[in-house]
Amino acid sequence: MKDDEVFVDTNILVYAYDTSAGEKYVRAAAIIKNLWKSGRGIISTQVLQEFFVTVTRKIAKPLDSSAAKQIVKDYLVWKTIVVNGEIILEAIDILTDHKYSYWDSVIIASAIEAGASKLFSEDLSDRQKIKSLTIENPFLDR
Q1: What is the DSSP letter of 22?
Q2: Which among 17, 53, 62, 115 is most buried, taking Cβ atoms within 10 Å?
Q3: Residue ranges of domains in the chain
Q4: Per DSSP, what are the bridge partners of residue 79?
């Protein structure tokens, strides 16, 4: 595990490409740019799938499928966690122990499997520690 590797949840990635998201777009784009430069970003197949659906169908100014596909392809150079059986079982334990939804638990389990020290997410409990992972909401002013 590298102390500075960061797993990126879907919402952060989506905001980085959603120009209608205002300040969240600005912050998320800066976070993603920094992770590209440093090589510290981690993602999962789940995040990439959710990203594609969201940016092509659910944001105010959707991307066309070919542009979104190219973005997904670009992110495959990051450390990419493939959701497998072990991650699913770990997610079920996280769901039981911490009362997150199943899909959020898969994100957390994927970040733990990746050895990330941080998980950037808007939707999870800020500053919560699960095993060696700390959840951080990068949109909160500290």
Answers
A1: T
A2: 17
A3: 6-136
A4: 42
Burial class from Cβ neighbours inside 10 Å (0-12, 13-18, 19+) for residue 16 reads: buried
CB neighbours of 122 closer than 8 A, spacing ≥ 6?
Answer: 9, 11, 12, 15, 24, 137, 138, 139
CATH code, residues 6-136: 3.40.50.1010
Distance in angstroms (rounded) separating the CA atoms of residues 124 and 78 = 23
Q: What is the pLDDT of residues 25-68, one digit of tens each?
A: 999 999 999 999 999 999 999 999 999 999 999 999 999 999 99
pTM of the model: 0.95
Does residue 45 sit in helix, strand or coil? helix
Q: Angle between the 102-114 and 85-98 helix axes, to the nearest 10 degrees? A: 120
The secondary structure of residue 131, as a DSSP letter, is T
- Three-point CA angle 69, 105, 88, nearest 5°: 80
Distances (CA, A) of 32 to 6, 74, 130: 10, 12, 23
Q: How is residue 49 written in tokens? A: 């799938």
